[in-house]
Design brief:
The chain is of the alpha+beta class. The chain starts with a helix and ends with a strand. The chain is built from ten helices and 22 strands. Strand 3 and strand 4 form a beta hairpin. It folds into two domains: about 90 residues, PDZ domain (Pdz3 Domain); about 230 residues, Alpha-Beta Complex (2-enoyl-CoA Hydratase, Chain A, domain 1), CATH 3.90.226. Helix 7 runs parallel beside helix 8 and helix 8 packs parallel to helix 9. The chain is globular and about 75 Å long.
Length: about 450
């Protein structure tokens, strides 16, 4: 099992112990007995309903399916990111974090009964077929998605390599549904891509899996060697439409650009569960300037990196506000019965800021020139737009643009980042506090 899973499971177990230990102080005497009795009464009610369904439903149901649905219902009522993984889904998840799996190449969530595309993964069948962030998948091979769980919908989109699946997509209110046929393939995630932009190194991280940091280390080394230490102006770190991934990889990526200081802290239900992660000595870029690109599709681990580098004024964050997923999910194996994906903590930037349902505000806001046919459909609602999301306790923000032009020559955000690094553009917000106004393209 990965280091991350062991670490977070340990934290979850500690939380359970702390909760049990504190119960005598919170509930004593008759109040504790009454609370316990009410819990057992509710469990007894569940048992009664379960037995009635088993014996009286019009067709004989499968007991395991009933229990799995009940577990899923309990977890999905907590927040959009807690769920039960059956043994197959758990195995699939483990394969995906290693960076190679079969499928279409889309990150998805559930919204209003439909499958919502968070982002298509670069160079995958879904991306090549024109699937966009924010698309709502209403039918899979002619079957309605409503009524299915997210895991059931994902299972229907998976299948043998070279087989086709037909998706019906709703793209914007009032728009006519579109149908796309996609041929399944082996999805090999290249989490890091890089290229030379004359005197600037461009690095794009598409997700945080087990290969992310080793590939980033290689990218920074090769770009420095190719451009030359003296000529190198700095780096563009592109985290746009990156849905996140492993916490330990986000920490390592942040550490690559930092020489000291806190990277992120995670705070659970009790103060004793707080964990702080700090940078080790050694900046792989030797202090070269960095511009981080984010947008409405940058979530979770991406926001950890952007927040850490922004708070330490190590990088200028440029683009549009990020997704706002500021919670940590622990994967807890359940023997041979799958696993529990449970939200166990919120994470905080080095300055103690929670981005849950708010996102990272860029230092410099730069909008893309969105094609006319996509205008109004280029935004992602963000975490605050998900039903049942954890509250921030402060003002929440939704809707941020997630459009990235397919041709880098049309990408105004990359152009602004390059100009900033080359000194062709000077901005008072560079490596400083966020500003709110939109910079003209």
């Amino acid at each position: 099992m990965r280091k991350l899973s062991l670490l977070m499971i340990g934290a979850a177990m500690g939380a359970g112990a702390a909760t049990v230990a504190s119960q005598p102080q919170l509930l004593t005497g008759t109040s504790a007995i009454a609370a316990s009795a009410e819990t057992y009464r509710q469990l007894s009610l569940f048992g009664d309903v379960f037995e009635k369904v088993r014996t009286d439903y019009v067709e004989a149901p499968e007991d395991a399916a009933l229990i799995e649905s009940a577990i899923n219902g309990m977890l999905t009522s907590l927040d959009p990111h807690s769920s039960y993984l059956d043994p197959k889904s758990f195995r699939d998840m483990q394969v995906q974090t290693r960076g190679e799996f079969g499928g279409l190449g889309i990150e998805v969530t559930m919204e209003d009964g439909f499958v919502k595309v968070v982002t298509p993964i670069d160079e995958t069948p879904a991306a090549q077929a024109g699937v966009l962030a924010n698309d709502l998948i209403t039918h899979i091979d002619g079957e309605e998605v409503q009524g299915l769980t997210l895991n059931q919908a994902v299972d229907r989109m998976r299948g043998p390599v070279n087989s086709a699946v037909e998706l019906r997509i709703r793209r914007g209110e009032g728009a006519e549904p579109i149908t796309v046929s996609i041929t399944r393939d082996i999805i090999r995630i290249r989490p890091v891509r890089w290229r030379v932009e004359d005197d600037v190194g461009y690095v794009r991280i598409t997700q945080f899996n087990e290969q992310t940091y080793p590939n980033l280390e290689r990218a920074l080394g090769e770009l420095t060697d190719e451009i030359g230490e003296e000529r190198l102006r700095g780096f563009v770190l592109d985290l746009r439409n990156n849905p996140g991934g492993l916490l330990d990889q986000a920490i390592d990526v942040s550490d690559a650009f930092l020489d000291r200081g806190e990277i992120v802290s995670t705070r659970g239900r009790n103060a004793s569960e707080t964990q702080r992660y700090t940078a080790r000595s050694g900046d792989l870029t030797n202090g070269k300037p960095v511009v981080v690109l984010v947008n409405g599709g940058s979530a979770s681990a991406s926001e950890i990196v952007a927040g850490a580098l922004q708070d330490h004024e190590r990088a200028t964050v440029l683009g549009t506000r990020s997704f706002g997923k500021g919670s940590v999910q622990t994967i807890i194996p359940l023997g041979g019965s799958g696993a529990l994906r449970l939200t166990t903590a919120r994470y905080y930037t080095p300055e103690g800021t929670s981005i849950q349902a708010r996102g990272i505000e860029p230092n410099i806001v730069v909008l893309q020139n969105v094609p006319e046919e996509l205008q109004g459909r280029d935004t992602v609602e963000g975490e605050a737009g998900l039903r049942g999301h954890l509250s921030n306790g402060e003002e929440e923000r939704t809707a941020s643009s997630a459009y990235v032009p397919p041709d880098p020559a049309d990408d105004t955000q990359i152009a602004a980042a390059l100009a900033l690094l080359r000194g062709e553009r000077v901005d008072s917000a560079s490596r400083g506090a966020p500003q709110s106004e939109t910079v003209p393209n």
